[in-house]
Write a structure and sequence with these properties.
By secondary structure, the protein is α/β, with parallel strands linked by helices. It is 39% helix and 17% strand. Helix 5 packs across helix 10 and helix 12 runs parallel beside helix 15. It binds pyridoxal-5'-phosphate.
Length: 423
């Protein structure tokens, strides 16, 4: 068995990658540690790069087409992992999921139609609704304290109300930035509400292969609603190959499928470039599974590390700085100063490598929080507010990186925190 080396720090600067090469221009600051965009700092496995090299060695970079292997690999992946039987004529290609959502909105809604989302949620959903000239309807998630700590939940009463008159809904399954893996019961309830209200569902399942607790494709929970649903999926987050531009969509209803396929074909939006069909064909395999299970074990350890770090370092009683344990005067003082015991918390993701850090106990206005992280901690994180309603007080941290990078990030956060609060 190949042992992949996720610990290896790679120098991605100067490789024309958004994460490392655009941080300075976006934030206007030098030397920020980029822990934002959902792109992992892990090497693409050699079995994939070898296949790419071989293809380029073929010598002619002409138009690519979908090989049979592409269909077979996706069909087998869904059957094997999610027990979802799909057929070749239900599958389609788009170069990216955001692109796919943009097209689905243009194909299945018209300007002025209402589209429901569950913020805080992946911000391009809102952008695409606006670009399609539809009306965004928010159904903000609730934050509840559960067994796992704080967690996002759907506000069912609000959903029942707000869905009225909506033409479509975009579901993030699993959820980004909260990392919630929706349960079968939740998905069934969403499906029933959508069915009753004749709502077309766009289910973005890009993070599903990275779930720590299984995944249920939305289109499998209710046969009737499945007929009015498009599912988007991709190898891009799973295998860290987003730059290749390869995603798949599934519609099980023939008429709906043919409508979307014809729309995409008409504009040649379904064309992939030379390498686009390689990730799914190659990664949805035994080798891919092996890489993925090792990557997920590594990511889980990183999540555990952050969770423990926050508990050990940002509780009110004990703040450790430079190896020395400093006790704040007493617990009462700390509680009076911050109002609660754990000052920086997190929503533990059930899927993927993104952690929604909760700074609300610090009581900082959002701008001050962002400035603190950028100017004092020298970290580039995604501002929670960009995910929409309910995102204020949060920042999204990407832990798809070698442990050393993460340790550096946490040390920077702690040093900045101790300095700010004179601890
Ligand atoms: C929920 C979600 N959908 C879509 C994307 C982007 O997909 P693509 O690069 O294929 O457009 C991301 C990337 O972070 C995401 O988190």
């Amino acid at each position: 068995m190949t042992q992949y080396k996720f610990d290896k720090e790679l120098n991605r600067k100067g490789t024309s990658c958004i994460k490392w090469d655009m941080t300075e221009s976006i934030w206007g600051k030098k030397n920020l540690l980029p822990m934002w965009i959902a792109d992992m700092d892990f090497a693409t496995p050699k079995f994939f790069t070898d296949a790419l090299i071989k293809r380029v060695d073929g010598g002619v970079l002409g138009y690519g087409c979908r090989p049979q292997k592409w269909y077979d690999a996706i069909i087998a992946w869904f059957k094997d992992r999610y027990n979802w039987t799909i057929t070749q004529d239900q599958l389609g290609f788009v170069p990216g999921i955001v692109v796919g959502i943009a097209h689905a909105l243009r194909c299945f809604t018209k300007p002025g139609d209402k589209v429901l989302i569950f913020p805080p949620v992946y911000f391009p959903f809102a952008n695409q609704i606006a670009y399609a000239r539809c009306k965004q309807v928010d159904c903000p998630l609730l934050i509840k304290e559960g067994k796992r700590g704080e967690d996002f939940e759907i506000d069912w009463a609000l959903m029942e109300k707000r869905i009225k008159g909506c033409k479509a809904m975009i579901l993030c399954n699993p959820h980004n930035p909260g990392g919630r893996v929706w349960t079968r019961a939740e998905l069934q309830r969403i499906a029933c509400i959508c069915l009753e209200n004749n709502v077309f569902v766009i289910s973005d399942e890009i993070h599903c292969d990275l779930s720590f607790k299984g995944h249920i494709p939305f289109a499998t929970v209710n046969a009737k609603q499945a007929k009015n649903t498009v599912t988007f999926h991709a190898p891009s987050k799973t295998f860290n190959c987003a730059g290749v531009g390869a995603s798949e969509w599934i519609i099980t209803d023939k008429a709906l499928h043919d409508k979307f396929a014809a729309y995409l074909k008409g504009g040649e939006f379904d064309a992939g470039h030379y390498d686009s069909f390689m990730p799914s064909s190659i990664f949805y395999s035994e080798k891919g599974k092996e890489w993925l299970s090792q990557a997920m074990a590594y990511i889980k350890d990183n999540i555990d590390y952050v969770e423990k770090f926050l508990k050990d370092n940002f509780t009110a009683q004990t703040i450790e700085l430079s190896g020395k344990v400093i006790r704040t005067q007493d617990e009462e003082y700390a509680e009076a100063k911050f109002g609660t015991k754990q000052l920086i918390r997190m929503i533990r993701p059930e899927a993927s490598f993104l952690i929604f850090l909760d700074f609300r106990n610090l009581g900082l206005p959002q701008k001050e929080l962002v400035d603190f992280l950028v100017d004092k901690a020298h970290l580039a994180l995604n501002d929670g507010a960009m995910f929409g309603a309910g995102g204020e007080g949060f920042m999204r941290l990407n832990v798809g990186c070698p442990r050393k990078t993460l340790e550096r990030a946490m040390a920077q956060l702690k040093a900045a925190f101790c300095k700010k609060y004179k601890l």
